[in-house]
């Protein structure tokens, strides 16, 4: 009975931690911003984005010439992800208050081994959607007749096996070494994490995937063949590992991973904030190994790729691999280091809060330390430049690509520092899922990846600008927070930053629903699939904007509707003119509208000229612009321009200019008349005209 | 405001949502005073100290420390005042010595000179042998001692100490009390929040009793007994209990 009660309490704790995990908008208008539909939606969107990682990998595996081999490697990749998490959690490391399921209080409780097993797996559960995404996608794509339950069971077993494997390995190390020595090995968890990411991404991409030496039973099960057999084997392994877990579990160790004996001062030659950052980074568990290892890893991989480049027919493919490695290494290690730095500041808050530290100095020193580290890891990408020297056109392309990548890494390092500060550091006041459990990191990842994989220098520059603008706002939000960080009454993120995070959620939902619709939409036309995906994302945006509308200033003033019609007509005329001066090649990426039946035509009109104007205007003119206006103060006349730029950047590149014009017209309408209805009408008229042009 | 006061607070109030933590505290402290901020748990002592140091923004009222406003000039105040928190925390992977060097750098002082000046205090607190170990390995008492050293490292004219002797062994607590008395004689003003009434009785020249965010008594420990209609041989604890109950 007691065991049951304990298990129930642990289950409740796990559920509560899931509920509290992930992105959350602190709002001054509602006393409890963790409740409410917008907060829950944001968390669901984030979980969906993690699922998306396995899903995209699964889609590419399905198209591979040897899908079972590729699936085996991808399955192992997903497993490595889970293994890395549980392994790292077992080893003593700098305490992380952001992990709700690993606190000193829990360590002191006399919990049963079953409870500890549940806690260990629940800690790693953030990675479970990757395995589910991979297994279910492969089942649907390659064995449509097979039961999806089998796929979910397979993913669960994979999660338990690898999770327990990581846990047991960590426990074994902890039992055989001192707390200090075991903590020094915590950096080993970077290896399976990185390996997992690369396996998931590279296995389905390589033309000739190497055959796994231990056979492809796992891959066959993942694509829907012999699921029961493999599940049985995995289940048996899980039982064995469970027994090992019970045997190795000796209670938590509260010993601090500290080097025994005296340490000479690192500040003999003087001390400043950047030196402090470097010393702390080096001394924390794994800190002295991570950077050299990551630099060596990217140098070896990119070096090998570059060596192959002159012999390869398509240099761009090699660039894509180099960019992928750089993106993964810098974003993973960048966020990890930034989180660690932010967390240790939060732990030392009683000391820092009483010191005369200017907020901008704190942030600057952290950002500059991280920039240095990330540029070192990213530097090997310039090796591809040398290897493209033989081919003049390729060399010219690689030149701007390498430069853009290094600039993006440079900006990203600062952005990661500010985001970590807001989500895991002094700026956050409650436990969260860490910086990885945030939509903020996703918001930054989009423009960062867009720079590295940009189709041309122009779009790379636009993505760099977007990344820069996001970084600027993240810094402002971080600075605004630090001044009164002990004050729960104080708004902890700027209104603009909150709006941007919500928009990140909208973009993420759109990306995911589009992928799902295109993969599973069956015979339905592409236009209807995209419309459906957009409608779901629009609904999410509507709900997430709901809280802001309750007390927001812009109102629906219908008597000003004629103004909207005039603005819409002007903007539509502008779009028509623009289309006539545009070279035909500019429309290459455009998806033509096709409505084969009356129903799909009506859907098209309803979504494009009805849903989109209402939802987008509510967000851009109803929330983002007023937020910018209050930020800009006397220069509030600039708010419509910034809003219009963000509005245009969120649309496809070929429609950037007409959408910018519409955004400017609507922005000034809002600034002058505070009427959301006029903006919605103008937008509807513009979109209806665009629909007419697109159907021709 | 008069220039003679080290600290002046007028009608300080702080509300957290619907709960009122501090409900109009006014104080004036002269140089050399040792003021005990007493009161039951949740009386608003720590919140008051945090407002004075500029870590919290008051809902109402204002405070000036050494002529500077604690809301708009918080950074300048933090450079002048020494503060020891109730629950001290540091960077785990700095040694005690490095922590003191870092703090001195932030306050634009000279670390070598600071360590020399603090040497007697380090000896009194018996922290010397552990100063070169990582703070992560410190006990609560050692962290408290380090927090006191951090507060005193720049020889401030005002010390705000939140439960300074919590978690300390009795000999260390006595030594700290004696040191604070010595500092007060040189003109340093000390404000300490404590629930150790015996220590407050022996150390403080003035006690400020708080309850439910308000000051319910302000005077010498002897006056407190009189206000509670007790004799001079009664303990401060009895006076405290009577005043809070009233």
Q: Can you offer a commentary on this structure?
A:
With 696 residues, chain A is mainly α. Chain A folds into three domains: 51-250, no CATH class; 296-493, no CATH class; 519-533 and 542-583 and 592-695, no CATH class. In chain A, 72% of the residues lie in helices and 0% in strands. Chain A contains 27 helices and no strands. Chain A has helices at 2-20, 37-62, 67-90, 104-108, 113-123, 128-142, 148-176, 179-184, 190-202, 217-222, 227-248, 273-283, 287-308, 315-347, 349-352, 359-378, 383-387, 392-423, 439-452, 457-482, 495-520, 526-551, 561-581, 598-632, 639-649, 656-673, 676-695. In chain A, helix 18 (392-423) packs antiparallel against helix 19 (439-452) and helix 19 runs antiparallel to helix 20 (457-482). The longest helix of chain A is centred in the last third of the chain and has 35 residues, at 598-632. The radius of gyration of chain A is 26 Å and the shape is globular. Mean pLDDT of chain A is 81; it is low at 22-35 and 429-437. The relative contact order of chain B is 0.17. Chain B contains nine helices and ten strands. Chain B has a single domain (7-32, 44-194), classed as P-loop containing nucleotide triphosphate hydrolases (Rossmann fold, 3-Layer(aba) Sandwich), CATH 3.40.50.300. In chain B, helix 3 packs across helix 4 and helix 8 crosses helix 9. With 246 residues, chain B is α/β, with parallel strands linked by helices. The model of chain B has no long low-confidence stretch (mean pLDDT 88). Chain B has helices spanning 45-52, 74-80, 96-106, 111-125, 140-152, 170-185, 197-203, 221-227, 236-245, and strands spanning 7-16, 19-29, 34-38, 60-65, 68-69, 81-84, 158-162, 189-193, 206-211, 214-219. The chains are: A mainly alpha (696), B alpha/beta (246). At the A-B interface, helix 12 and helix 15 of A face helix 2 and helix 3 of B.
């Amino acid at each position: 009975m007691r065991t049951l009660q304990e298990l129930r309490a642990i289950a409740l704790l796990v559920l509560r931690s899931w509920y509290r995990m992930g992105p959350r908008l602190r709002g001054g208008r509602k006393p409890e911003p963790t409740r409410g539909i917008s907060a829950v939606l944001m968390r669901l969107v984030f979980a969906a984005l993690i699922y998306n990682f396995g899903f995209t990998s699964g889609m590419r595996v399905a198209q591979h010439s040897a899908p079972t081999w590729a699936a085996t490697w991808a399955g192992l990749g997903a497993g490595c992800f889970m293994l890395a998490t549980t392994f790292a959690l077992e080893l003593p490391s700098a305490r992380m208050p952001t992990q709700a399921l690993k606190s000193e209080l829990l360590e002191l409780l006399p919990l049963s081994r079953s409870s500890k097993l549940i806690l260990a797996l629940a800690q790693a559960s953030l990675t479970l959607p990757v395995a589910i995404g991979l297994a279910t996608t492969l089942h649907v794509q390659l064995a449509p007749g097979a039961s999806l339950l089998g796929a979910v069971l397979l993913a669960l077993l994979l999660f338990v096996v690898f999770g327990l494997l990581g846990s047991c390995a960590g426990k074994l190390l902890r039992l055989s070494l001192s707390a200090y020595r075991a903590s020094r090995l915590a950096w080993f968890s970077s290896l399976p994490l990185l390996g997992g990411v690369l396996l998931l991404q590279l296995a389905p991409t390589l033309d000739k995937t190497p055959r796994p030496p231990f056979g492809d039973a796992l891959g066959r099960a993942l694509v829907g063949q012999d699921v029961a057999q493999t599940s049985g084997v995995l289940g048996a392994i899980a039982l064995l590992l469970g027994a090992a877990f019970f045997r190795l579990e000796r209670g938590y160790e509260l010993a601090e991973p500290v080097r025994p004996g005296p340490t000479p001062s690192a500040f003999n030659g003087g001390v400043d904030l950047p030196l402090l950052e470097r010393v702390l980074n080096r001394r924390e568990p794994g800190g002295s190994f991570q950077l050299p290892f990551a630099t060596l890893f990217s140098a070896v991989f990119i070096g090998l790729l570059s060596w192959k480049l002159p012999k390869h027919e398509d240099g761009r493919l090699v660039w894509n691999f180099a960019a992928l490695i750089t993106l993964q290494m810098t974003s993973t290690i960048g966020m990890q280091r930034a989180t660690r730095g932010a967390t240790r500041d939060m732990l030392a808050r009683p000391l820092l809060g009483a010191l005369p530290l200017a907020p901008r100095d704190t942030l600057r020193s952290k950002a500059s330390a991280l920039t240095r580290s990330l540029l070192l890891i990213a530097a090997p990408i310039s090796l591809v430049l040398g290897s493209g020297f033989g081919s003049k056109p390729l060399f010219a392309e690689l030149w701007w690509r390498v430069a853009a990548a290094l600039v993006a890494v440079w900006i990203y390092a600062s952005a990661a520092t500010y985001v970590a500060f807001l989500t895991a550091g002094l700026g956050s006041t409650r436990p969260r899922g860490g910086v990885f459990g945030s939509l903020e990191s996703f918001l930054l990842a989009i423009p960062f990846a867009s720079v590295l994989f940009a189709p041309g220098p122009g779009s790379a520059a636009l993505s760099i600008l977007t990344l820069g603008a996001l970084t600027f706002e993240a810094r402002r939000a971080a600075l605004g927070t630090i001044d009164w960080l002990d004050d729960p009454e104080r708004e902890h993120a700027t209104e603009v930053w909150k709006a941007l995070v919500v928009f990140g959620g909208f973009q993420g939902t759109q990306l995911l629903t589009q992928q799902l619709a295109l993969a599973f939409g069956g015979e339905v036309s592409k236009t209807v699939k995209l419309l459906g995906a957009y409608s779901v994302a629009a609904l999410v945006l509507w709900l997430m904007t709901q809280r802001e509308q309750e007390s927001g200033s812009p109102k629906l003033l219908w008597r000003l509707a004629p103004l909207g019609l005039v603005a819409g007509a002007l903007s539509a005329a502008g779009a028509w003119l623009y289309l006539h001066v545009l070279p035909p090649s500019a429309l290459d990426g455009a998806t033509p509208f096709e409505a084969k039946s009356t129903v799909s035509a009506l859907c098209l009109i309803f979504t494009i000229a009805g849903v989109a104007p209402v939802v987008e205007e509510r967000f851009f003119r109803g929330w983002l612009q007023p937020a910018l206006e209050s930020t800009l103060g006397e220069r509030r006349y600039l708010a419509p321009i910034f809003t219009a730029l963000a509005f245009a950047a969120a649309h496809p590149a070929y429609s950037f200019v007409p959408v910018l014009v519409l955004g400017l017209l609507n922005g000034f309408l809002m600034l002058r008349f505070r009427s959301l209805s006029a903006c919605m009408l103008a937008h509807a008229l513009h979109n209806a005209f665009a629909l007419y042009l697109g159907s021709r | 405001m008069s220039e003679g006061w080290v600290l002046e607070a007028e009608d300080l109030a702080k509300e957290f949502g619907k709960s009122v933590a501090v409900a109009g505290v006014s104080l004036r402290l002269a140089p050399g005073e040792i003021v005990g901020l007493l009161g039951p748990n949740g009386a608003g002592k720590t919140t008051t100290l945090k407002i004075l140091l500029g870590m919290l923004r008051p809902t109402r009222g204002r405070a000036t420390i050494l002529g500077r406003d604690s809301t708009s000039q918080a950074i300048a105040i933090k450079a002048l005042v020494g503060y020891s928190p109730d629950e001290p925390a540091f960077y785990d992977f700095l040694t005690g010595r490095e922590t003191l060097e870092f703090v001195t750098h932030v306050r634009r002082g000279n670390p070598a000179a600071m360590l020399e000046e603090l040497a007697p205090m380090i000896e009194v607190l018996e922290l010397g042998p552990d100063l070169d170990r990582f703070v992560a390995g410190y006990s609560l008492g050692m962290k408290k001692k380090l927090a006191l050293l951090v507060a005193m490292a720049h020889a401030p004219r005002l010390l705000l100490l939140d439960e300074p002797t919590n978690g300390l062994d009795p000999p260390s607590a006595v030594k700290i009390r004696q040191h604070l008395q010595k500092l007060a004689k040189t003109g340093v003003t000390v404000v300490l929040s404590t629930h150790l009434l015996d220590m407050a009785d022996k150390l403080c020249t003035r006690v400020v009793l708080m309850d439910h965010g308000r000051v319910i008594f302000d005077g010498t420990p002897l006056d407190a007994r009189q206000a509670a209609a007790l004799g001079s041989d009664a303990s401060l604890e009895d006076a405290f209990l009577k005043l809070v109950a009233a």
